[in-house]
Amino acid sequence: MKKYLLSAAVVLAMCATFGFKVDGSHLKGYIDDSHCAGSKTPMCTPATRVHCAQECIKGGASAVLVVGDKIYKIANQKAVLKYAGKNVTVDGTVTDDTIQVTKITETKS
C-alpha cells in the first residue's frame, strides 16, 4: 500500500512540475482583455464588449480567451488582436492555462 501511495504521489508531482499540455485543442469562447475577463462584476455590456476589449488591449491589457468560467492566456497575442471582444473558435496547443493559437475563426453568438 505504501508503494502504491508513493507511486501516486510521484506521478502527481510530475504532472504538477511539467504542466498539462494538450495538442490540437478546439475551443469556443470570446477574446477579452485580461483586466475585464477576471472581474467579478461585468465591466461592459455584450453590446459594448468589442470596443471595451479593444480599448483595454490598446491600453496595455493582454488578450485572453474566455471559455465559460475558464480564462486562457494567449501565447501569441498578435494572432488574436483583430478578434478582441468577438466570439471565436480557436485551435491550438494548451499548456496549463495558456494557449498557443494556430487558427482562429470568428463565430456568431
Which descriptors would you attach to this protein?
alpha+beta, 5-stranded mixed barrel, 3 helices, 109 residues, signal, globular, OB fold (Dihydrolipoamide Acetyltransferase, E2P), single chain
Spell out the blueprint of helices and strands.
Layout: H1 2-18, E1 21-33, H2 34-37, H3 49-58, E2 63-67, E3 70-74, E4 87-95, E5 98-106
Parallel strand pairs: 3-5
Antiparallel strand pairs: 1-2, 1-4, 2-3, 4-5
**What distance separates the N and C termini?**
52 Å
Q: What is the name of the CATH class?
A: Mainly Beta
Strand order of the largest sheet: 1-2-3-5-4
Low-confidence runs of at least 5 consecutive residues? 8-20
Question: How would you spell out the order of helices and strands?
Answer: HEHHEEEE
The count of helical stretches stands at 3
CATH topology: OB fold (Dihydrolipoamide Acetyltransferase, E2P)
Tell me, what's the shape? globular
Radius of gyration (Å): 17 Å
How many strands appear in the DSSP assignment?
5
Mean pLDDT: 84
Count of the separate structural domains: 1
- Share of helix among residues? 25-40%
Q: Which quaternary structure do these chains form? A: single chain
Structural class: alpha+beta
Major beta-sheet overview: 5 strands, mixed, barrel
